[in-house]
Amino acid sequence: MSSTLKQFCYTASQRVMTGLAQELQIYPNVHYRPAGYNTARVLSLRLVGVNPHFLPKIRGMQLPLTMWAGLSDKQRIRIGWDGQGIIIEIPKPPCFWQPVTIEQLEQRHYLRRGIIATLGMGLQDEPRRINFQEATTAHVLISGLTRSGKTNTQRLIAWNLARNVDPGQSRLLIFDVAKQGHRWSDFAQVAHLAHPVITHLEEADRVLAWLAREVLRRGAQSQTSPRLFVLIDELKALIDDSPLAADHLARLAATGAEFGLHLVLATQYPQIKMLGSAELKRNLSIRLCGKVDSADAAANALGLPDTGAESLQGYGDFLLRDFNGLFRLTVARLERRHVEHLPHSEARSLDLPSLEEAHEGVQDLSRPRNEPDPLEPEQVALALFEPMGINRLAYQLGIGSTKAKRVQQFAAGIRRWALANGFTRLELDDPVPEDTDSKGVILRWPDNGQDSGRFIPAAQPYLEDIS
Fold this sequence. Notes:
single chain; Threonyl-tRNA Synthetase, Chain A, domain 2; globular; nine-stranded mixed β-sheet; alpha/beta
């Protein structure tokens, strides 16, 4: 450790302990024993033996202790509890950051054989892993802002699975529709690929339909091998533009792990409406979160409040939540030269169903064929009363362009039918008063005995007649 880094560690920790003494009257060697650890991105100050009832008070000191430590406004202290002591993580300036490399993991013998992904090193340089051999490990969600390291983390998981297990025991399916496989081109000839890297929407739909059939087949035959790992980069783009993805993924997440299928999903937006269903998110038991822009986003990503993910230090700095708790780690950087050493073979292709069969399959799995794909009333209302292009509508609603087109077409059909039949007011859940001073035309559905108070179900029969 350089003298300047030693000076920073000593000064910052002393300032934090002084702040605790001045603000809360909590003193070292009286209320706790201090222990410090220099890690890749942070100085970890552990308060051993402190009474847990001090934790809420100390957590409330995040901003004051950040000021006591002399940090800039772009850095904040993160405070947590590890079951035995309070952990205060003091961010180090970028000039003191220490990279975590694949070579370090190899030299320290941290990499393991088996279906285990070693991601990097934690606060005391201990290895942090995802062990897919454990019964509690099913599916993984990786979230964070752009340039937080989501794709690198996903690639590292795939690299571990291809390095540690024979192709007959572990197979990979890689989806990258949003970026056309740009970051996955070096995996194109890896022997563990069950199908070439999937970069087109129609192909993605067909592979998801194949996966749904494969899980049913394995269930009928009680088969669990080889393990299938489904890695989807930029999940939101696939969910937005594929009418099949959300239904298939929800069912794969619910039952796939029992038959050797694991989802590893990466997205910037882990909200339920961006994932397509609450069922999908509920079954993503392992969470990895990089830098996010707010405490609310951190809670959404990890399923826990007050994690401090909004104060992470950029690329490669992550929080891992599993059944053992919440841990900070620095993810190792995977480079192309590491992938070159994996077993290689000619790419093979699955025997995929046709696109028509894929669409029929998802209807069989999800809902009756005569039931329309649901659209939110607010989405159609915006398209009705504020006409705009598809791209702007997609941006305003936070949905994909394919769904925005459906919303726009649905609203246009409502408008044509209503005007053709002489109706001038649209009645939502609450009837609009007759004396409403409205701007423009409001449409009203007739009382046709089909729940006219909710306009989307009521409108569907008329739109089918129009078409």
